[in-house]
């Protein structure tokens, strides 16, 4: 594998982690939401990755395979005066776990930073190789 493939691999990972960070930001922004655009409680979303194998002419890497909604139940709060309360007076909030999302954000941020560092190191190695040849 050449050093040029490193840019493809790390670049695809940076792109995938960027998508993950955007989804985490959306989840955190809607953590206290009672209703989404469809009128139903906001459902947390999760990003799923898929590795791209080294086969044929395709470059290896990672891509976002899917963004799915969580099926976990949202927190139910008793507030009979709320306009979205059900017959029993409960309002269903989003199922976003702020703690889980913060852990997810830190993990995605570190993975993003690590892949940027990989690209910087590969760039420095290529630069040193060119300097040795002159």
Describe the structure using short key phrases.
134 residues, single chain, Flg_bb/hook_C_dom, flagellum, alpha+beta, FlgC
What features would you describe in this structure?
Keywords: Bacterial flagellum, Cell projection, Cilium, Flagellum. InterPro entries: Flag_bb_rod_N, Flg_bb/hook_C_dom, FlgC. It comes from Ramlibacter aurantiacus. This is Flagellar basal-body rod protein FlgC. The protein has one domain. It is an alpha+beta fold and 134 residues long. The model has no long low-confidence stretch (mean pLDDT 89). The protein has two helices and four strands; from the N terminus they run H-E-E-E-E-H.
List the helices and strands and how they pair.
Elements (H helix, E strand, L loop, with lengths): L2 H27 L15 E8 L8 E9 L6 E3 L11 E3 L5 H36 L1
Antiparallel strand pairs: 1-2, 3-4
Question: Based on the structure, what is the oligomeric state of the protein chains?
Answer: single chain
Q: What is the tally of beta strands? A: 4
> Strands across the major sheet, in which order?
1-2
Helix and strand content put the structural class at alpha+beta
Pfam family, one: Flg_bb_rod
Protein name: Flagellar basal-body rod protein FlgC
Family: Belongs to the flagella basal body rod proteins family.
InterPro entries: Flag_bb_rod_N, Flg_bb/hook_C_dom, FlgC
Short description:
The protein is α+β, with helices and mostly antiparallel strands and about 130 residues long. The protein has helices at about 5-30, 100-134; strands at about 45-50, 60-70, 75-80, 90. InterPro entries: Flag_bb_rod_N, Flg_bb/hook_C_dom, FlgC.
């Amino acid at each position: 594998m050449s050093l040029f493939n490193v840019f493809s691999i790390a670049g695809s990972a940076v792109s995938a982690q960027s998508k993950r960070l955007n989804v985490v930001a959306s989840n955190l922004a809607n953590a206290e939401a009672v209703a989404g655009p469809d009128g139903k409680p906001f459902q947390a979303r999760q990003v799923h990755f898929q590795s791209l194998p080294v086969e044929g002419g395709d470059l290896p890497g990672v891509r976002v395979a899917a963004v799915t909604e969580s099926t976990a139940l949202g927190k139910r709060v008793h507030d009979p005066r709320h306009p979205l309360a059900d017959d029993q007076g409960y309002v269903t909030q989003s199922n976003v776990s702020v703690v889980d999302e913060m852990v997810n954000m830190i993990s995605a941020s570190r993975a993003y930073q690590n892949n940027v560092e990989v690209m910087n190191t590969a760039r420095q190695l290529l630069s040193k190789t060119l300097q040795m040849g002159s």
